[in-house]
């Protein structure tokens, strides 16, 4: 009995220690690529070519970031990206949730065929060229609204939100109707607040997608510099860096000069700086939505 008691006391300690070690290793493996990218972004470009940079810059410099922000277009593109992300996220969440509420009501007789139409759009797509002519026919070329209108409704988000609404008790809607509330008031004051976990998750997906995309700018608004987004500007800068046929330690496209070795940037260093500039804004948003993220991912897993 004594030996059993001692063994029972040791096993939890061993398990806790092993678990802590494994979790620590996972944290290190997860964080290392990002920390290494930060270190390279603050390291001198010529020195980065030598390699051997891990978690701390060997030769500190801000030249990589100066190469990115030396042009005023990056600041304007940042504002365009912020406006695009905020508007796209707000409209997508509100309109998709409103549509999901209508399709979640059993008394709506056309909810199944309409849902089927939206589901089919997830499997079949007309393609790039028909999509371009559609945007052109709608008069959205070289317009800021080309970033907003095509993304106002998402079929995947619609299915996720509708599934979550199916877990809500029907008695909430029935009691509200008995009190004289209309569908729009029920949606705004009862259903919408109760969907906060799934909406926070969807908002994160939409915001990240809107922030990171640059291809629609390339297709529909590349001829309008005032509509350029941050990701598109960073993509152009990265492309000019990688495709430079001049001295590989000198990036003229970024506005650099070959005065001193410390003033030079390389594809490795500029790529790291671009990655950090593009990722930091989303990193500031994620902590505010993290508490809803797990709940939103488990949407529809529990049925009443």
UniProtKB/TrEMBL annotation:
Membrane topology: Multi-pass membrane protein
A single Gene Ontology CC term: plasma membrane
Record GO biological process: transmembrane transport
Transmembrane segments: 12-35, 74-102, 114-133, 145-165, 186-211, 268-289
Matches recorded under Pfam families: BPD_transp_1
Keyword line: Cell membrane, Membrane, Transmembrane, Transmembrane helix, Transport
Keyword Ubl conjugation appears in the UniProt entry: no
Coiled coil: none
Protein name per its UniProtKB record: Carbohydrate ABC transporter permease
Species, as recorded: Paenibacillus sedimenti
